[in-house]
Fold:
Amino acid sequence: MGGVPGSGEALPGSLEEAREVAALLGVRADVQDDATYDRLCARAAEAELLWLSTHCEAVPHLGGTPALRLRDRWILPAEIAALPLGPRAVVVLTVCAGGSGPSLGAVSGPPLAASFLAAGARLVISPTRTIRDSVWGPLIVEALRRTLRTGRATPVGLVRALNALTPTPGAVAPWVMHA
Structure:
């Protein structure tokens, strides 16, 4: 799912990312008008891989908690935790800071990753720090291409490929797996 609006405009690169990821995986992308809460619920029930490229931000009128933006509304962590995810599902969140919660000193919790795990996901891949969509969109697609070329596409391989493509030399690689 991707290419949905936040404050009236889509994330730079998210629509292209969603379409290219879907093409590489041989599936249909739910983008723009199709990226709705009902569609997410339907896909979650059958997904072995759920890839979300959308806005994620703390929403003041929703208590400041990080939420995912779909076409029709914001989705809160409690709603994500109630999704009917199967135990084999892997969730990839290509959203800013993976839905990090409020900072507690130098640590911030990953409430969206934890919510997908509570819903039954086997594993969640997300960034630990803010990523720029216009920079990371093409890098995410390239990381998936590299992973698929190995013939043994695994979540670990995807995270390694993502971190290898970190654009700032010497920077802490932002991608992690939550289990």
